[in-house]
Write a structure and sequence with these properties.
It is a single chain. The protein is of the alpha/beta class. The protein contains eight helices and seven strands. It has two domains: about 5-65, no CATH class; about 70-235, Mannitol-specific EII, Chain A (3-Layer(aba) Sandwich). It has a five-stranded mixed β-sheet, with helices on both faces. Strands 1-2 form a two-stranded antiparallel ribbon. Helix 1 (about 5-10) crosses helix 2 and helix 4 runs antiparallel to helix 5 (about 110-125). Residues about 50-70 and about 180-185 have low confidence and may be disordered.
Length: about 240
Amino acid sequence: MTVRQLADYLNLNERTVLKLVSEGELPGVKIGNQWRFRKAMLDAWLDDQMLGVTPRSVDVSRGAPAARRMLDLASCFQPSHIIPDLEANTKTGVIEELANLASRLNLVRDKTWFVGALIERENIMPSAIGNGLAFLHTLNRHPEHVVKPFMILGRSRSGVDFDALDGKPTRLFFVLGLKYHELHLPWLAKLPQMCSRPETLRTLMAAVTADSIFAALSDAERDLGTAATSAASRNLP
């Protein structure tokens, strides 16, 4: 879908759509200087809004700056949550390897459920958004299976075919363990913004250890917060 087609589909104007996608609120990929969107991915995004995973309102002109509404990285993510070099080279293998880590860290109570729930979501809508990135999560929230909200990350240097929007291999796999139906702190909006700069992706791929990967993401989070604060100050009357 083009920007115009998406604007018609969501009943928004094109300027609003461009602002939303440039801020990471809407899932899309930039090919050259044109944004392109997959309808199924947009439908999944709408489902997530209804579940409270992403902000319910698409009116970005109101409310607090995005960075103020979101969890700090360290609250649900640590270097021990990172697999710097995934062994798996298939979609199912990656999911199982990452779910195994979540189970070993006692972040989920039922590993079999977690694997099945992630695969269920993938069957409905692939999580790979392009640019080597995938953001996996379950379709529904089951607090009895998730010990606490968490994020884990796996990296594949060679890349894995994950049905990405741009048709390229996926190398960074973020998995969110979402415990609540009403998670108003929208990590699925924050993470793409953190990883939107090419230099951030290069740093994440070049990092040698889990600690250095964690540090690179922390830097990206800090930069995002600084940018949001600066933008908010410019908009003050």
